[in-house]
């Protein structure tokens, strides 16, 4: 039984004293209203109306049920109106998770501007490199970097995720500068622990054939944090594959220089990106939409889209 529709039909029938008039009010057949009332009476185990030639008269049980049903329906309508208003004016608590390094640099850094623009949105930021189950964790939105697995979640690409090969001037002065991807095998490389097969894939996107060269890595240091790898590269500990969004300042300061500028590095053949991930819903809440649109614009301004 559709309890909401049944209660709605009951309340109109009680008010109008007629199944047919109630049916006209809610635009259904009279037989449908009659069926709703019969199902309610069966469920409650009590008659709701006394039927006579003059029309319908509520029983004692019907009067009690009507009193409480009216309160429940009013609360439901208020809940509907309040919830709908959330979608017309961004407001409420927004829980967002993001990876540590990118989150601090490109999300947290712009939160003051976001909070000023949307004073009715409260934000809980969960800054972690752990991939949380956003449904189980009560997360409204996740910023993710990489190649997305198949899932039932919705995703919007916010920016590209380009990586380049780089090293400090000091390291290159001591060990020389590789002139081709194949020469990387003779150098110390800084690696993430989870890099598949200890290889980088160097892709020449500027060539007509988009050449690809896999490079076997060698090096004594592994680290699972982008900021730590950046610090080690600046300290001259080896050649690193780092995202462009992490190295702008040290490049301007001359602490790192790009190697093999015509080549782009990636761990696998799949091209990663920066994504906004959120649960699949018929209507995306305005607070989620506001956050995604705001940061998509920020990333365009920062040049992360290209």
Automatic annotation (TrEMBL):
<dbReference type="Pfam" id="PF03466">
    <property type="entry name" value="LysR_substrate"/>
</dbReference>
<dbReference type="InterPro" id="IPR058163">
    <property type="entry name" value="LysR-type_TF_proteobact-type"/>
</dbReference>
<dbReference type="InterPro" id="IPR000847">
    <property type="entry name" value="LysR_HTH_N"/>
</dbReference>
<dbReference type="GO" id="GO:0003700">
    <property type="term" value="F:DNA-binding transcription factor activity"/>
</dbReference>
<dbReference type="InterPro" id="IPR036388">
    <property type="entry name" value="WH-like_DNA-bd_sf"/>
</dbReference>
<dbReference type="InterPro" id="IPR005119">
    <property type="entry name" value="LysR_subst-bd"/>
</dbReference>
<protein>
    <submittedName>
        <fullName>HTH-type transcriptional regulator DmlR</fullName>
    </submittedName>
</protein>
<dbReference type="InterPro" id="IPR036390">
    <property type="entry name" value="WH_DNA-bd_sf"/>
</dbReference>
<feature type="domain" description="HTH lysR-type">
    <location>
        <begin position="1"/>
        <end position="59"/>
    </location>
</feature>
<keyword id="KW-0805">Transcription regulation</keyword>
<dbReference type="GO" id="GO:0003677">
    <property type="term" value="F:DNA binding"/>
</dbReference>
<comment type="similarity">
    <text>Belongs to the LysR transcriptional regulatory family.</text>
</comment>
<keyword id="KW-0804">Transcription</keyword>
<keyword id="KW-0238">DNA-binding</keyword>
<dbReference type="Pfam" id="PF00126">
    <property type="entry name" value="HTH_1"/>
</dbReference>
């Amino acid at each position: 039984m559709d309890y909401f529709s049944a209660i709605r039909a009951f309340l109109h029938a009680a008010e109008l004293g007629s199944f047919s008039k109630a049916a006209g009010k809610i635009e259904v057949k009279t037989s449908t209203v009659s069926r709703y009332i019969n199902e309610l009476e069966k469920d409650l185990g009590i008659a709701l109306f006394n039927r006579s030639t003059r029309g319908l008269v509520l029983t004692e049980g019907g009067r009690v049920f009507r009193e409480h049903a009216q309160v429940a329906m009013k609360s439901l309508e208020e809940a509907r109106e309040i919830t709908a208003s959330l979608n017309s004016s961004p407001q409420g608590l927004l829980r967002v998770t993001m990876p540590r390094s990118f989150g601090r640099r490109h999300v947290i850094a712009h939160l003051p501007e976001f909070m000023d623009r949307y004073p009715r949105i409260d934000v809980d930021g969960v800054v972690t490199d752990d991939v949380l189950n956003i449904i189980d964790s009560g997360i409204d939105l996740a910023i993710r970097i990489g190649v997305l697995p198949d899932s039932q979640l919705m995703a919007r690409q916010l920016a590209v995720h380009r990586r380049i090969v780089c090293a400090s001037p000091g390291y290159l002065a001591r060990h020389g500068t590789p002139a081709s991807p194949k020469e990387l095998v003779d150098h110390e490389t800084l690696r993430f622990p989870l890099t598949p097969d200890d290889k980088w894939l160097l892709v020449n996107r500027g060539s007509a054939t988009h050449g690809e060269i896999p490079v076997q890595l060698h090096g004594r240091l592994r680290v699972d944090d982008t900021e730590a790898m950046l610090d080690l590269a600046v300290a001259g500990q080896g050649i690193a594959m780092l995202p462009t969004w992490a190295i702008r300042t040290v490049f301007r300061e001359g602490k790192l220089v790009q190697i093999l500028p015509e080549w782009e590095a990636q761990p696998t053949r799949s091209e990663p990106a920066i994504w906004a991930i959120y649960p699949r819903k018929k209507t995306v809440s305005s607070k989620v939409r506001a956050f995604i649109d705001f940061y998509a614009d920020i990333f365009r301004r920062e040049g992360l889209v290209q």
